[in-house]
Amino acid sequence: MSDFTPALDIADRIRRGETTAQAVVRAALDAARGDPFNAFTRVFDSALDDAQGVDDGRLTGPLAGVPFAVKDLFDVAGQITTAGARLRIDAPAAVRDAEAVRRMKAAGAILIGTLNMDEFAYGFATVNAHFGTTKNPHDPERLAGGSSGGSAASVAAGLVPLSLGSDTNGSVRVPSSLCGVWGMRPADDTIPLDGVFPFVELLDAVGPFARTSRDLKTLYEVLSSTTLTGAAEGLRVARLDGFFERNAAPEALDAVEAVMTHLGSDLVAELPEAEGGRSAGFLMTAAMGGALHLNTLRARAMDYDPAVRDRLIAGALLPSGILAKALHYRDIYRQTFARLFDRFDILVAPATPVSAPRIDQATILIDGKPASARANLGIYAQAISPTGAAVVSAPLKTSGLPIGLQFIARPGREGALFALMHRLEDAGVLGFTEPGRRS
Fold first, then answer.
1. Does residue 433 belong to any structural domain of this protein?
2. Of the listed 148, 154, 171, 224, which one is catalytic?
3. Is 342 within a domain?
4. What is the pLDDT along the chain (439 residues), one digit of tens a residue?
5. Distance (Å, rounded) from C-alpha 39 to C-alpha 287?
6. Would residue 78 be called left, alpha or beta, if left means φ above 0 and alpha means ψ between -120 and 50 degrees?
7. Exactly one of 71, 135, 217, 397 is catalytic; which is it?
8. Do 247 and 219 belong together in one domain?
9. Bridge partner residues of 370 (DSSP)
10. 108 is a domain residue
């Protein structure tokens, strides 16, 4: 059975003695075992022992007793980290938890399982040749997004209130948008990556998922070991135009307009270099991802998901000078992007160009022509990843299919960013809608 109670409310009910952590965790385990969306890859019965620790008073913290699950590239002590790959099924078990998992447990949260993903985090669909396709809880015929599709779907479906994923080029923001939940790509170096299976060292980030902005804020504070403060008043909020409007479907443009109209802002931020920034990130991903897997490809190429294998091989074959040029452009692009914050506090752009496509829908329109849906769902997220900025992916409150927006802030301004998210959620402009509640 699904439970859409916010994480902070669950923790509060447990503290007040209105329920027990064991009861909450048992219900979550039952829901995960019956998962109809193929979000979970493993369920941990040992979670009940951890829940008993909360009920005994041995485990405390702001998330005490709250169930969570993690993308299957986070190390979990005693478990094999598959990274969504068949060729890692027989890998040695992790000897310790990833640092992000450790911090969650230290805050009292209870880990109940691992979640499906694109193989080695290389994709925007969570269509996995070995572990199956994760379905969108709002419409099982549609994509959940990726590569953290299991993380987003598990929260959207009410199986867990919180989850962890990773974001390299949009792997949190794309599934957040398509599944209609809150997600975050933190600023560079704010959440440790220790114990997270790597993809692209210079772009990887741990990313949390939640169903409310306040749950997401608490989750970020736990993971980053910070306490955020800030106000929404007086913020200069601007929409990104040009590249971030081109190729956007009406629902994406309408989402941006709804926010800007509510805020009474007509500010526009121009970033002509955005397409180049996206290209730099794309080339970094191909070259560095290919190099990371080169030796394994030579030994076990046929054990890879065919689509992932082909992309990794293509990246490994890129001339070395391409990566150097991409890194040089990335540095220039970061500086250009950072200067936008001299004039604006928060930047707004679509998280995805469209709402969730059907699983069998091969293309979306890019520059007026059919192009691969799965390759282009991250077109707007990819352009932000190289900047190192803090990004919250927020769901528009809508009666249609979900769609999300990127709210982007300078590193260090996360408090003001979340204050704005709370304001827009309280006003009913942003927010999660339970699957089946759409008109």
1. no
2. 171
3. yes
4. 579 999 999 999 999 999 999 999 999 999 999 999 999 999 999 999 999 999 999 999 999 999 999 999 999 999 999 999 999 999 999 999 999 999 999 999 999 999 999 999 999 999 999 999 999 999 999 999 999 999 999 999 999 999 999 999 999 999 999 999 999 999 999 999 999 999 999 999 999 999 999 999 999 999 999 999 999 999 999 999 999 999 999 999 999 999 999 999 999 999 999 999 999 999 999 999 999 999 999 999 999 999 999 999 999 999 989 999 999 999 999 999 999 999 999 999 999 999 999 999 999 989 889 999 999 999 999 999 999 999 999 999 998 999 999 999 999 999 999 999 999 999 999 999 999 865 4
5. 29
6. left
7. 71
8. no
9. 365
10. yes
Domain containing residue 168: CATH number: 3.90.1300.10
Domain that holds residue 358: 237-426
E strand intervals along 367-410: 369-372, 390-395, 404-409
State whether residue 142 is helix, strand or coil.
strand
- Choosing from 147, 151, 176, 385, the catalytic residue is 147
| Rounded-to-integer distance, Cα 117 and Cα 340, Å | 34
Q: Which two tokens stand for residue 255?
A: 């989402």
169 and 281 in a single domain? The answer is no
Is 171 part of the annotated catalytic residue set? yes
Q: How many domains does the chain have?
A: 2
What pTM was computed for the model?
A: 0.97
Residue type for position 384 = I
Task: Look up residue 70 and give its two tokens.
Answer: 């993690």
Is 151 annotated as catalytic?
Answer: no
**Which amino acid does the sequence have at 101?**
V
**Are 328 and 213 members of one domain?**
no
